[in-house]
Amino acid sequence: MAMKSSKLYQCVQPDLWKGREVDPSLGKQYWYQAIEQLDFEKDDLSNIDAAIIGYACDEGVQRNQGRVGAVDGPDAIRKRLAKIAWHHGGKRIADVGSIRCDDEKLEECQEVFASSITALLKHGIFPIALGGGHDIAYAHFRGIYDWLKEKEDTAKIGIINFDAHFDLRPPVKSANSGTPFYQIFNELDKGNISYLPIGIQERSNTKELFAVAEKFGVDWILLKQCEVDVKQVILTVNDFIEKLDYIYVTIDLDGFASAYSPGVSASSPFGFTPSFVLSVLESICASGKLIAVDLAEMNPVYDRDELTAKLAAGLVDVVVSKC
């Protein structure tokens, strides 16, 4: 399989996938031993179960007046993932490289990234995308949308966003990391797209954004609800999923409290815990409807003791084990 050739495509960097030396006779003990490093433009990806693909872009964050640095997020996650113990049997997971934003051309980067996601899905490969700013969500969903349009045009798809923010801001001059879900509803929705943001913080969203959410018929789960009753949140999520054919999950790492996730573009001492997200994520995976996942806003410039990178890598490991 090959994607459309692009100057924005970067092959896997082998130096990222390294770990401690182990006895080869023991088989695969760590991720770095199990990952298949493949060239998306040249190699055969047949029979790959899931593919890691990077979105090396923080142009959207810069446009949104955030702290830049997320361009290096995908590689920071890869480095930590390499060192995690492997418990996934014969699953074939590939790293197919990254799409990197060039010369502030966010829209071009998103177009190439979307085509890459479409190509993966067409060949039955589960995309696990690593960002990069949360503008990854527009690019990722566009790739899913284009795949569905050819495969099953009437399918109903849901977006579950673990995040402190709605990211429903109408673009003013141009798109950015705060506009992806507005763009999705404004450009792509034909009545078949549903959106459920989990962890919304009132202090981080203006009245206008709550009004935009209501305009698009969006329900949301506030952070304070997440803190009070995890079981009820899971029931709400399950009700949301039941009405849909497919689910795409995007996890903005700034939704976690900064004690767990300091390395993001917009950190906050308020936020959900890893155990909360894992509980809900496992329930989503159990539905059998999840078709793609991404992690956004990993910013190694502001990470502390690689906490955020370790958290992101752990989430990838859980997704691979459960889905």
Number of strands: 10
Number of domains: 1
Structural class: alpha/beta
The percent range for strand residues is 15-25%
Describe the structure.
The two termini are 23 Å apart. The protein contains 11 helices and 10 strands. With 323 residues, it is α/β, with parallel strands linked by helices. It has helices at residues 31-34, 59-63, 73-81, 106-122, 136-151, 180-187, 207-215, 223-228, 230-242, 274-286, 307-322; strands spanning 9-10, 36-37, 50-56, 93-100, 126-131, 157-162, 193-200, 221-222, 246-252, 290-296. Strands 1, 2, 3, 4, 5, 6, 7, 8, 9 and 10 form a 10-stranded mixed beta sheet that branches. It has a single domain (9-322), classed as Arginase, Chain A.
Summarize this entry quickly.
The protein is of the alpha/beta class. 36% of the residues lie in helices and 17% in strands.
Please supply descriptive tags for the structure shown above.
323 residues, alpha/beta, Arginase, Chain A, 10 strands, 36% helix, 17% strand
Chart the SSEs and their pairings.
Elements: E1 9-10, H1 31-34, E2 36-37, E3 50-56, H2 59-63, H3 73-81, E4 93-100, H4 106-122, E5 126-131, H5 136-151, E6 157-162, H6 180-187, E7 193-200, H7 207-215, E8 221-222, H8 223-228, H9 230-242, E9 246-252, H10 274-286, E10 290-296, H11 307-322
Parallel strand pairs: 2-4, 3-4, 3-5, 5-10, 6-7, 6-9, 7-8, 9-10
Antiparallel strand pairs: 1-4
Helix pairs in contact: 3-11, 4-5, 5-6, 9-10, 10-11
